[in-house]
Design goal:
alpha+beta; eight-stranded mixed β-sheet; about 30% strand
Length: about 190
């Protein structure tokens, strides 16, 4: 499979990669992840497969976001939605800039939970998003109840801003400034 981004993580001694979601190849796997006990309370997409097929097709057609699978050594373990804040539901939640981007993510593969991969994957995704030179900020709005993900975002360099009410949750708006990310991780965009 062709990857859109890959980097060798020195600390993990593993390759982290991202590839765009393919509907036919990935719909059943992503649907199974949405039904995992650690995922469905936050994503609320533990719906019948036919309903999920419609949901994923609609999401893939949405031009303000790109859906990815995240891989560790070519094993798909995570699902990502990288989006432009412009045209997103959170656009009016803070004073945004034209090229702000955002992230939604989940670790779907249960065997990879609790093994320290989340921070490395998130850091690689932020690095990929910051390849767009005009982007100065990456935002996230994890469910305010999801303390584990909030902690991972903070470790990556995101700063909590405020709770925001969204249609499906109360999220914690978090922002990662390019300068802060690069100061924290050095030249992480090239060598993690």
């Amino acid at each position: 499979m062709a990857m859109d981004f890959d980097v060798f993580d020195q600390k993990l001694q593993k390759t982290i990669s991202f590839a765009k979601v393919s509907f036919e190849r990935d719909v059943e796997m992503i649907h199974s992840w949405m039904n995992e006990e650690h995922v469905h309370p936050f994503w609320q997409l533990n719906i019948p497969i036919n309903s999920f097929r419609s949901h994923l097709q609609k999401a893939l057609k949405d031009t303000h976001q790109t859906l990815y699978l995240g891989f560790i050594n070519e094993v798909p373990i995570s699902y990502w939605e990288a989006y432009w804040v412009k045209e997103d539901i959170i656009e009016g939640s803070y004073e945004n800039k034209p090229y702000d981007q955002g992230i939604h993510l989940l670790i779907g593969h249960k065997d990879y939970l609790g093994r320290g991969y989340s921070l490395h994957l998130l850091r690689a995704m932020v690095s990929m998003q910051l390849k767009e030179k005009r982007t100065e900020r990456i935002v996230a709005e994890p469910d305010i109840r999801n303390k584990k993900m909030i902690h991972i975002f903070e470790k990556c360099g995101f700063t909590p801003q405020k709770p925001i009410i969204l249609p499906d949750k109360t999220g914690l708006l978090m922002i990662c400034e390019r300068k802060q990310f690069e100061r924290k991780w050095g030249n992480a965009r090239i060598h993690l």
